[in-house]
Write a sequence for this structure.
């Protein structure tokens, strides 16, 4: 029996490694490039507009605004979900595998992801539906049924099933538990892990049981603070070791375009960086559309402009902040070497080598990153449950979610992470198909919106 389980487990992990490699990369980056060209490079040409729209007070069309949260809260909540372990551990692994040049291709991927998020945010407002309680809701499942038609409902159901699995925070809960044990020096026992898991579940429950408004308020407070604190932490590293900064950025650009090791190595570096950024910002997966669909905003293009700032912050800014100390330590600290299978350990070691109490300061940042992700992901799973089983039954998902946090703290994750990655790939297939099919509808709205706001140009 054990052999059968191990065989099934190995098959799932192998399938996940394949599907979530080149095929998912081609889907997200290839689809994003198509939308980038089709939109007329909206993430570049309309970037100043996006900043202006974010600063503006929530617009009103004179009627009752549908939705539960502001556009700013939707953006912060979406970022709270994507800024997590991937921005630290994932970036550290990418740099260890592909070298400093991967960072440049993260920037390129972030630009492409901004375009995808623009279409997600716009369509989330254009095609909203109502749940069984009469509450306005948004997300890929509603884009499908309201935009593509009721005959596509099986695709919407598939998305929500994938979503209920993919948005469980096994990775965040497990890695946060391991990090706490490592830094504190506690013994790694079942009791210790279980206790940490229960404490995490209690903290998360205080926020998520209050619903989307409490989640959004928490995200609106936590995200700006944690990004600023992380920036200050990296700035301290830069100031203390300013003489090494030029070499860091020189190695990023040199590594990005170097053909010394052959064209194959160049392609490998580009793919590694672009894939890491695509997986971090989740552009095209459909998670952000559920959050932006809850915005009190009746202007689709405006929501899209605000939504496209997400990849800039998580894949552009935060991933770059992580890479600087890691590259710097690998180049300038004697005895420091990057391990290709130890993401968070690489980051902790780099910060500790360059900054007094660096590993403890980074652990504080990891703490906020992990919890912010757990807050927002619970909402995504709740929305999927709501769509499948109705508003009255959706609340039970939160209790299931809290139990799974404790479970994640005490078990090994290889199989579960493989299942979750496959679920994310399924979400991406449903979302990217929908975005590309409905792209002409967004382009038509763009013409109207930008023509009526020419005074902003």
């Amino acid at each position: 029996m054990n052999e059968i389980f191990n065989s099934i487990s190995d098959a799932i992990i192998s399938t996940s490694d394949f599907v979530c490699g080149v095929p998912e990369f081609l889907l997200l980056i290839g689809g994003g490039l198509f939308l980038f060209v089709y939109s007329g490079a909206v993430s570049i040409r309309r970037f100043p507009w996006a900043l202006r729209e974010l600063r503006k007070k929530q617009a009103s069309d004179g009627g009752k605004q549908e939705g539960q949260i502001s556009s700013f809260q939707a953006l912060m909540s979406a970022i709270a979900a994507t800024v997590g372990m991937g921005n630290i551990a994932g970036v550290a692994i990418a740099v260890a595998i592909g070298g400093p040049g991967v960072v440049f291709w993260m920037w390129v991927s972030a630009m492409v992801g901004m375009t995808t998020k623009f279409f997600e945010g716009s369509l989330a407002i254009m095609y909203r539906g109502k749940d069984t309680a009469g509450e306005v809701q948004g997300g890929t499942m509603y884009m499908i049924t309201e935009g593509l038609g009721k005959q596509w409902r099986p695709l919407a159901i598939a998305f929500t099933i994938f979503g209920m699995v993919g948005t469980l925070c096994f990775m965040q809960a497990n890695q946060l538990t391991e990090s706490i044990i490592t830094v504190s020096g506690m013994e790694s026992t079942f009791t210790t892990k279980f206790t940490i898991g229960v404490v995490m579940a209690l903290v998360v429950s205080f926020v998520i049981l209050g619903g989307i408004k409490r989640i959004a308020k928490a995200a609106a407070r936590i995200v700006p603070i944690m990004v600023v604190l992380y920036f200050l932490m990296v700035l301290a590293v830069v100031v203390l070791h300013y003489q090494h900064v030029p070499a860091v950025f020189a190695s990023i650009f040199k590594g990005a375009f170097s053909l010394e090791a052959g064209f194959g190595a160049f392609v490998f570096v580009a793919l590694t960086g672009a894939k890491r950024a695509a997986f971090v910002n989740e552009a095209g997966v459909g998670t952000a559309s559920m959050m932006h669909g809850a915005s009190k905003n009746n202007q689709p293009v405006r929501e899209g402009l605000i939504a496209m700032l997400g990849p800039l912050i998580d894949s552009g800014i935060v991933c770059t902040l992580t890479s600087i100390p890691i590259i710097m330590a690998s180049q300038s600290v004697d005895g420091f070497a990057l391990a290709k299978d130890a993401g968070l350990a690489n980051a902790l070691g780099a910060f500790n080598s360059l900054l007094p109490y660096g590993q403890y300061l980074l652990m504080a940042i990891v703490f906020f990153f992990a919890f912010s992700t757990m807050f927002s992901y619970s909402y995504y799973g709740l929305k999927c449950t709501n769509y499948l089983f109705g508003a009255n039954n959706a609340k039970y998902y939160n209790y299931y979610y809290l139990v799974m946090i404790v479970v994640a703290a005490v078990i090994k994750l290889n199989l579960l992470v493989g299942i979750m990655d496959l679920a994310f790939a399924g979400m991406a297939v449903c979302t990217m198909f929908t975005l590309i099919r409905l792209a002409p509808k967004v382009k038509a709205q763009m013409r109207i919106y930008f023509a009526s706001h020419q005074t902003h140009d």
The first strand starts at residue 129 and ends at 130. The beta strands are 129-130, 136-137. The CA atoms of residues 348 and 359 lie 5 Å apart.
